[in-house]
Structures are given as structure tokens and as C-alpha cells.
Amino acid sequence: MTYATVEAAVQTLIVAMTEFDSDSVSRGDYKILDSGADDLAVLTPGSFTKDETGQAGARKSLRNWSVLVDLFRKYLDDGTTWTNFVATRDALVDQLELYPSLNGTAGVTLVAVEAGSDPSEVYDDDDNGPFFIFQRIRIAVNERTDLSGGEYT
Q: What is the pLDDT of residues 114-138, one digit of tens each?
């Protein structure tokens, strides 16, 4: 499997939420922030680690992928914006916890969700705003895959 497969599976789960749709979730395209949607998510690659191990005579690759989800909530006013942001963030965490294999994605054995940053307000370069509340969410995905080919034939 590849990182792109893992990221696509995460995107599918987020788009399935009532807070999002296919126009408010992107893979690396921040232009969606101009769409006018209340809740937005931009997925980008994070760090990864890889290990190799032998199991019952077979060679396995253990990959730990990080998918970064930059979560945005359009800033409307001081009270409900923060409340709605927290509700959407909680729903995102709940959604991903319901699918510890990313809904049956081959080789995925664990999905863990954690904050990659504290929530903050987003202003422009001239200090106008805030326009959004933003928080980076890190999704750690453990994948186990067979090694074949090369020296593993």
C-alpha cells in the first residue's frame, strides 16, 4: 500500500460526515478556504517511520504514516464559532475512532488521532480578521504489509 491510499481512505471517512462534503475536504488544496463553507479540512502528508520484521518465515513492512488534517471553521462571531468548531472537531475524532482500520483498508491495523497544534484564530497579513479558527489534527496510521520482489522473492 502507499501513503496516498491511506490519505484517500481518511478523506473518504471525513467526507462521509454531515459537517463536510466533497467540496469542503481536499488533499493539499487550500483554495477551498475561499469556498464559503463553514467547516473545511485540508489533508497533507506528515512524517512516517518504517520498520521491517520477520514473521513466521515471511517478511513484513511495518509502516507508520501520519496524515495531517488542517481543520478550519469559518469565523462568524465570538460565541458560536468556537462552540461549533469544538463540535466539529469532536465529531471528526469520533468518526475516525469508529474505523480503526480506515473502514477495512488492507493492512491498516490501528488509527490514532491527536492534536498537532492548539486551536488558533487565523488573521491576514494586515491583522484583519479573524477569518477562521484553525487546528492541525495528526492521524497516525499503522500499516502492515508483506514484502515481495527484490531480495524478498
A: 999 999 999 999 999 999 999 999 9
